[in-house]
């Protein structure tokens, strides 16, 4: 079959009407804000797809060309280009982005903008911040992608270094219209593919010499402890490592199961599947295939070599024959035994026999495309290999040092990756190596992992460095279990965001400046981000104050009302705040009108399949709408007919409807689309957060129904539980007297934080007495008490929320 089966769908030729061309230059107006700039000394231009760019057939935008003897000018709604028709240089080629002020939004060839950063190949062995490659977003309103040196994708499924243009640049002049810029980038370079549903649960990973019995014992312990995992990672010791004869070299690369550890690999993987887990194996392919490997004979013969000579089959990604044999003879047999996808752990540099050809990119590209042969959704797990890598999820960020500095950098690193379209990073949660044991650090890192694109616990080969929750003190164990269960319950929300990323070109995580690009604070708060359409996350990444026993995160609250996901405390936006949380909590805020569908884990269930028991969190401070999207979760093609959708709506309008009912209601609409993927019936636990206790009426298909309703003052939550109801029926929860937001229970909340504060008892009594008497006005009095700054900050946050 050759490499012809490894093809991406591409549309590389632009519309002829979009191109303005001379003997040695071609300028293509792809959109009113996106130009392709080519210069060719030979006068021949490149019309094939490249590693980065797949599609240039944009609709022809409106533009105007003006030519004089000295200059070519092109005008669009947003850009103004001037070019002297000579080899590109700063004096002869310039573009102004309309809407900016002065020189800040003007580009001359060779100039670099104040870029907001993209991502990096790896975090291997890093201990904190590292330099990042540029992204698409810039304070100056423009950015560039240089595609002059990337490989060309050929019609036979292979790559070639042959390029016809000397210079091949893409100029993005979108000002601060960041989402629009990203959407056009995804068309140019390929969309983010839809991930399988199971990747959004928790991943267990550890570099450790597991035996089959030990791994099974671990999974059974997780089940007993009711800690859900959806993916079992087995690091490199699944294959022969120490038992390799030194004459063949080391055991870092391998394709032969270690039968001393795993006597029956197929049965072992079947057991994992029976327990609801998918399995991925680690592979370091750099040493090729050597004579001790079980598949050596068939690989050598397929490569035209004599197996009796025992010469190694060299790893050579520049050879199409090798790549075909590598995939079909080494990996397919193991996949037939039960491997669901591969962890490509390439650490051996960027050099191949073809100058400019990155072996990591080759591995990502071909492993991803090849993984579709099983009839399931393509998937691979590997490091970032440059522009276009978003087409090959999931990303493995590498082996970080265990430190607060590493934790501090990861939220920023994750969010800026969206600036180059790379939305699905997976980090070593808890850190990988070195460092010191720190219970608090582990708890905070777990919290970040749960509110990251992919949550994968990992650690190096050290018996003291396991991330099993029961290895830590009782408080940390409790926090880890709480958050790992929460992550599993969030799969319905995350899977809908997965569809949004693929269909609507909006990554799960967005830096704050995407939605408020002219708000200066959004550029200053590096670790805060939007987590899907409904949530804002500001993780705590520095040690807690020992007196307050709480940590803090500097947070920008956009205009409007926000409710804490855990406590229900309501905040007024439009300001900077320092948010304080004890070790059990982290700042996760729901926007006004937020609707967040979850799996109800009241009864433990490890499955990531579409649940029949639902929980929905709602912050009813504004009208809201959320469409829950669901399909089988691992279909090979993402077709419209695969999907079922359920609309969830919140109407807060305090007015009478024609029926005489108050129009303040929450509605679960009848499911639509491919209902065969849904359970016939569902139970619904509706949690209205940040509210006061108010009367509730429930109807199912228009008939009033008596259901359990309760109120939790501690979390300011009104909880409505509906028994199993057919998905084809409509559920309405009415609030006859409307909804009143919670007053915050400020005195009670201040009392609870003072209980744990490590300060004098008499001082605590003085503080709470002041708060009871003065309410919010107590802030000035408290300031005069010269309290510990953290305790004072906590109290101010509650009183001034």
Helix content: 10-25%
Form type: globular
Oligomer classification: single chain
- From the helix content, strand content and strand pairing, which structural class follows? alpha+beta
Average pLDDT over all residues: 95
Spatial arrangement of strands, main beta sheet: 16-15-14-13-19-18-17
Main beta sheet, described?
7 strands, parallel
Describe the structure.
Helices cover 22% and strands 22% of the residues. By secondary structure, the protein is α+β, with helices and mostly antiparallel strands. Helix 8 (439-450) packs parallel to helix 9. The protein is globular and about 80 Å long.
Topology:
Elements: E1 19-21, E2 25-31, E3 34-39, E4 64-67, E5 72-75, E6 79-83, E7 93-97, E8 106-108, E9 143-146, E10 152-153, E11 159-160, E12 167-172, H1 178-189, E13 202-204, H2 212-225, E14 231-234, H3 265-274, E15 278-283, H4 296-302, H5 320-337, E16 341-344, H6 359-370, E17 395-396, H7 404-416, E18 425-429, H8 439-450, E19 454-457, H9 474-489, H10 491-503, E20 509-511, H11 521-524, E21 529-531, E22 535-537, E23 551-557, E24 561-564, E25 570-572, E26 575-581, E27 588-591, E28 595-599, E29 613-618, E30 624-630, E31 644-651, E32 665-668, E33 672-673, E34 681-689, E35 697-700, E36 703-705, E37 709-712, E38 717-726, E39 731-734, H12 746-756, H13 761-774, H14 778-784, H15 789-800
Parallel strand pairs: 13-14, 13-19, 14-15, 15-16, 17-18, 18-19, 29-34
Antiparallel strand pairs: 1-2, 2-3, 3-12, 4-5, 5-6, 6-7, 7-8, 9-12, 10-11, 20-21, 21-22, 22-27, 23-26, 24-25, 24-27, 28-29, 30-31, 31-32, 31-33, 32-39, 34-38, 35-36, 35-39, 37-38
Helix pairs in contact: 8-9, 12-13, 12-15, 13-14, 14-15
């Amino acid at each position: 079959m050759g490499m012809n089966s490894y093809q991406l769908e591409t549309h590389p030729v632009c519309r002829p009407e979009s191109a303005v061309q001379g003997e040695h230059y071609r300028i293509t107006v792809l959109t009113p804000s996106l130009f392709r700039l080519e210069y060719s000394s030979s006068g021949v231009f490149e019309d094939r797809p490249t590693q980065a760019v797949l599609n240039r057939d944009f609709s022809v935008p409106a533009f105007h060309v003006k030519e004089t003897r000295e200059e070519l000018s092109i005008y669009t709604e947003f850009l103004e280009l001037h070019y002297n028709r000579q080899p590109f240089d700063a004096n002869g080629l310039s573009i102004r982005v309309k809407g900016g002020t002065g020189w800040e939004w003007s580009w001359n060839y060779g100039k670099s903008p104040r870029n907001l950063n993209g991502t990096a190949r790896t975090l291997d062995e890093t201990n904190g911040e590292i330099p990042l490659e540029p992204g698409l977003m810039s304070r100056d309103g423009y950015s560039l992608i240089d595609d002059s040196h990337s490989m060309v994708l050929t019609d036979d499924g292979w790559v070639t270094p042959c390029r016809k243009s000397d210079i091949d640049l893409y100029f993005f002049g979108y000002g601060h219209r960041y989402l629009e810029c990203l959407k056009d980038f995804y068309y140019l370079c390929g969309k983010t593919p839809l991930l399988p549903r199971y990747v959004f649960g928790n991943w267990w990973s550890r570099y450790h010499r597991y035996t089959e019995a030990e791994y099974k014992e671990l999974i059974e312990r997780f089940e007993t402890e009711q800690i859900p995992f959806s993916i079992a990672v087995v690091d490199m010791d699944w294959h022969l490592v120490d038992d390799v004869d030194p004459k063949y070299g080391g055991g870092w690369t391998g394709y032969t199961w270690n039968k001393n550890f795993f006597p029956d690999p197929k049965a072992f993987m079947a057991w994992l599947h029976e327990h609801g887990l998918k399995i991925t194996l680690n592979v370091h392919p750099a040493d090729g295939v050597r004579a001790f490997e079980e598949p050596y004979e068939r690989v050598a013969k397929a490569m035209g070599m004599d197996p009796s000579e025992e010469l190694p089959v060299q790893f050579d990604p520049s050879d199409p024959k090798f790549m075909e044999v590598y995939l079909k003879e080494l990996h397919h047999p193991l996949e037939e035994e039960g491997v669901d996808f591969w962890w490509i752990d390439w650490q051996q540099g960027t050099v191949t026999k073809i100058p400019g050809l990155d072996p990591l990119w080759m591995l990502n590209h071909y492993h991803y495309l090849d993984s579709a042969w099983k009839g399931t959704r393509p998937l691979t797990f590997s490091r970032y290999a440059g522009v276009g890598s978003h087409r090959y999820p999931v990303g493995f960020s590498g082996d970080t040092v265990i430190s607060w500095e590493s934790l501090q950098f990861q939220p920023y690193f994750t969010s800026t990756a969206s600036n180059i379209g790379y939305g699905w990073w997976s980090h070593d949660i808890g850190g990988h190596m070195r460092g010191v044991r720190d219970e608090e650090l582990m708890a905070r890192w777990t919290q970040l992992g749960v509110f990251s694109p992919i949550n994968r616990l990992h650690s190096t080969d050290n018996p003291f460095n396991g991330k099993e929750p029961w290895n830590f003190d009782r408080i940390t164990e409790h926090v880890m279990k709480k958050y790992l269960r929460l992550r599993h319950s969030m799969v319905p929300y995350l899977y809908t965001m997965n569809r949004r990323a693929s269909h609507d070109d909006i990554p799960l995580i967005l830096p704050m400046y995407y939605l408020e690009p002219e708000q200066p604070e959004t550029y200053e708060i590096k670790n805060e981000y939007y987590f899907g359409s409904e949530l804002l996350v500001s993780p705590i990444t520095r040690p807690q104050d020992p007196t307050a026993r709480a940590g803090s995160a500097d947070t920008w609250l956009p205009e409007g009302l926000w409710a804490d996901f855990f406590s229900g405390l309501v905040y007024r936006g439009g300001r900077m705040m320092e948010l304080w949380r004890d070790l059990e909590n982290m700042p996760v805020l729901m926007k006004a009108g937020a609707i967040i569908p979850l799996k109800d884990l009241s009864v433990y269930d490890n499955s990531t399949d579409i649940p029949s028991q639902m929980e929905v969190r709602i912050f009813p401070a504004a009208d809201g709408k959320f469409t829950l999207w669901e399909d089988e979760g691992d279909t090979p093609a993402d077709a419209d007919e695969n999907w079922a959708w359920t609309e969830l709506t919140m109407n807060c309008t305090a007015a009478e409807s024609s029926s005489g009912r108050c129009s303040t209601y929450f509605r679960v609409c009848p499911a639509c689309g491919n209902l065969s993927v849904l359970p016939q019936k569902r139970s619904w636990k509706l949690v209205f957060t940040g509210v006061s206790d108010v009367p509730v009426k429930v109807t199912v298909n228009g008939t009033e129904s008596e259901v359990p309703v309760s109120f939790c003052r501690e979390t300011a939550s009104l909880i409505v539980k509906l028994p199993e109801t057919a998905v084809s029926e409509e559920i309405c929860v009415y609030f006859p007297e409307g909804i009143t937001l919670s007053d915050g229970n400020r005195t009670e909340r201040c009392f609870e934080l003072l209980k744990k504060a490590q300060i004098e008892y008499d001082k605590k009594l003085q503080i709470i007495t002041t708060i009871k008497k003065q309410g919010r006005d107590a802030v000035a009095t408290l300031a005069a008490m010269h309290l510990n700054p953290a305790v004072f900050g906590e109290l101010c946050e509650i009183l001034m929320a």
